[in-house]
Amino acid sequence: MSKVLLCILSGLLLIAQAHQHHKKINFYQLERENFKLNLTNYGATIISVITPDKHGKLADIVLGYDSIDSYKNDTCYFGALIGRVANRIGGAKFTLDGKTYKLPANDHGNTLHGGTRGFSDVVWSVESHKKHSHVTFSYDSFENEQGFPGKLKVHVTYKLVGKHGLVVKMIAKPVDKATPVNLAQHTYWNLRGHDSGDILSHIVHIFGSHITPVDKLLIPTGEIVSVKGTPYDFLEPRKVGSKIHDLPGLYDINYVLDKSFKKNLSKAVEVRDPVSGRKMELWTNQLGLQFYTSRQLNATKGKDGAIYNKYGGIALETQGFPDSVNIPYFPSQILKPGEIYEHTMLYKFTAR
């Protein structure tokens, strides 16, 4: 790369960063009767989700922090919108149209969740906010941001539906070049309450009969294997902790969802807490679901004085398959100008 081109790219990066510093960080509430959400445009992040249990008692069921500074220093991606490419890219590089793109190696020589400063660490613009309806955030990702090609326009809408329902809709449009896109919502859930301890007694039912196995650095091997007869089999509902100790300490794997292609959305997972009676269903139009049981939490200081420890929450990230840019027979995540990426999640909360 020429010195002139390097100077131009460096200048564009400084302009983009200066624009980021002038954007104001705010908080936004969505509310419908006894169902409430708090969000911020820093990382288009879900800060809290408050729902009733079977007795009508309200509790916040997502892990998070009290201050924006804590979110800025966060390494857990609590509640954040992840991009340009969620999950891992092996070797921190990929080749597209004959050109190799090198990315930040922020995870043991690989790229995780968009790089050192992905969409979870930028200030989004607020397009629209109606407290009893929705909030829409937007972000214009610039050329060569974290090494990715081309400009990308991104929107995410959090919308209340029904009595206790939430739709998350992510839309991305490349402006001038083909680019990989794989957005994800990275909230950690604890249906008993964010400060109630571990999630090992939560009952999980995953509508995915295959996984994409990974190597020791959590990069997919390229295989797609059945979960039957393994600790990954949640085809019948069972407790998270029932077979977790048959693994190297946690669940952190992509499930290949058993999609019903007759419908736009298919059910990906159900989670139920037997103590509070809360149940969460997650529906999606995506092909994959990352199931993660938060082993890295270790006396993490959370909101309201909470201390989060190992297995303190479950992350359920609907997505494309990890490292698809380097595994040709995985479904492609390459988006060309004129094409539109649409990722929909539907959460349904009940209690009984």
UniProtKB/TrEMBL annotation:
Coiled coil: none annotated. This is Aldose 1-epimerase. It is an enzyme of class 5 (isomerase). CDD domains: galactose_mutarotase_like. PANTHER family: ALDOSE 1-EPIMERASE (PTHR10091:SF3), ALDOSE-1-EPIMERASE (PTHR10091). The keyword Nucleus does not apply. It comes from Flemingia macrophylla. The active site is at H186 (proton donor), E317 (proton acceptor). It catalyses: alpha-D-glucose = beta-D-glucose. One of its GO terms (molecular function) is aldose 1-epimerase activity. Beta-D-galactose binds at N87, R88, H186, T187, Y188, D252. Pfam families: Aldose_epim.
